[in-house]
Task: structure prediction
Amino acid sequence: MMNTAADKIKVDPRDAKLSMAHFFVAFAALAIGGLMGLLQTLVRSGKFELPAGIGYYQLLTVHGVMMGLILTTFFIMGFQYAAVSRTAGTHSNAARRTGWVGFWLMTLGTAMAATMVLLNKASVLYTFYAPLQAHWIFYLGLTFVVVGSWVDGASQIMTYVKWRKNNPGKPSPLLSFMAVINTVLWIVATLGVASTVLFQLLPWSLGWVKTVDVLVSRTLFWYFGHPLVYFWLLPAYMCWYAIIPKIIGGKIFSDSLARLSFIMFLLFSIPVGFHHQLTEPGIDPAWKFIQVILTFMVVIPSLMTAFSLFATFERYGRSKGAKGLFGWFKVLPWNDARFTVPFIGMASFIPAGAGGIVNASNQMDQVVHNTIWVTGHFHLTAATSVVLTFFGISYWLVPHLTGRKLTKSMNKLAIIQGWVWFIGMVFMSGAMHIQGLLGGPRRSAFSTYGDSAQAAQWIPYQIAQAVGGTILFLGIILVLIIFINLTFFAPKGDEEFPVGEAEKSEAAAPMVFENWKLWLGITAVLILFAYTIPFIDIIQNAPPGSKGFKTW
Result:
């Protein structure tokens, strides 16, 4: 396939430096969080005790915060910053300064929160639910991370707005459009967690107020907590929609369909937090029902995405002479880590999505709620579909940013890494799902199960999780080896930043997709509809026990 001039466009070195700064923090978080995850699975097996008075829930908090918040947020912002620079043009000096301010705010906040967790003054888990209370520095650190991410995202929006002004009447580059959608989703969603931290948990931890309304704080958290999943997922979709077609040598099935699916994720991923609170009192069941319906609306863009991806694969396969229903499968570039590793993530999203339907269904959720099934589900979605796609992105993006090449040896090691990760997750997540269906509790250490008979019931599943966790940690070591090689030691060269193109026959995307007043207005209306009345009811008719807690 001939390279075009567009294929040779490189991210400006000044922008590359900021993206790489994000990746250094992200992969450091992967190393720390991954080690904590390994230790967790070993403790849960009952065959290992933590040294030096380290607490199990201290490990759990470090793992959750580092992997679920720090790794993802820093990687996503670094990737999106590079994607906007590549497709909408080099960031201006003002946008670049804004990005650096956001990065340092996030880094400072990460250091503050991590320090408190490591000192065992913030072992409040990834969800940091009240009435668990952390040191005020932990909450302030999280605030800096959130505010820093807003500033970081603003730099991407500034460059997008500049492109729009310079190209009136034209649809924006697809990757830049997707990055802005995800940034807007993140900003709107984090208003919830910022509110509970700033106005409830931070004053409470400082001793300025004596009580906190637990149901309000949980509701504000899950207003954020569910779209957080789509903040993780949409960058993976960016890769699947707009980058994978270029890697395999095909075309984007439909630019317009890709934009529509992202808008639908913006509209339907935020006003659905109650489906995480189906078993909680104090929320009218009618509103839970409405939000469950809204939750299932995201099935539509998910199916649109699956259709678009497999249509791209089939068209490419037909162009290579593939015949039959699945003939295209054989001609895909399985020896290319840039494709194979994200494809494993794509395939994993099929059972992950099925598990999500279970979690969001009122009756089925009663079976698995607060069991380790939920943990297994998170590890299929975030820790497999999303993270494997992130790894696949890094295998070409890091050398592109550092002016190096993805060598044959590193490409082969990356494919091995992808399969190691998949095998480890089959053991760990599979065991979590089975144990959850049998009633195995979530977030519990071996020593907290009670009598020995109850603990013995879960030993086979806990050992399987430890085996899986060990294999996954080996996968993390491989990722770090590849990252360090591609950053510092790989041969100098020009690695492509692959950006797919739509079919020539496709009409330009309708400009209505760029009508931000319309889409933000609909988003605001949906949020107000889904939350205003139930939130007022929660405050006015708080049930006994929903507030007044100082400590656990």
